[in-house]
Fold this protein.
Amino acid sequence: MQLEPQDYQQQHKQRLAWMPWLYYRLKAKHLQWAKPWQNDIQQHLQALETVQIGENCFIAPDANIFAEPGRLISLGNSSFVAAQSFLHGPITIGDHVAINHGCSIDGGQKGVSIGNNSRIANGVKIYAFNHGMHPEQDIWRQNSQSQGVIIGEDVWIGANACIVDGIEIGDHAVVGMGAVVTKNVAKWAIVAGNPAKIIGDRRDKA
């Protein structure tokens, strides 16, 4: 099979979509096509949705980002959103934040905030709303409530973790893989399990 240069470029684009951190390691010869490609994706998205994108960001072409008027999604500088993630505003994302592939983040009414330098691993679910559960009415007929979710700076949320509405995760905390966070997490705490419980302090990992 005879491959053409564009075949390699297309494969490289797919690799970047699933592993966006590689975008920031590209050599100058690759940036010649990668930067215009990203500029087109980001300009098109900002024309269609209520989205603000900082400098040097990366957004996978198959990321699903929806931000109606009043549901702003903002990305700080040097942040990325990887392949097949779903984001529905309002969401505020700081600088140097990673949203890895397959994440699902819905801001509800009150929004989701993710602080600078935080890492959201693949498959994480964050929902800033909840259904009413009154026993005398069908679930689908009930209004949802929203308190919002706040994730601090320098936080690591492990793969497939789930964070429910009303939660605040303090700066420098770590949420273990597959954890279900139903209570606030203190600064520097390491939590894991379902429901998530404190299993350590990050400062002890020095």
Summary: The chain has a mean pLDDT of 96.
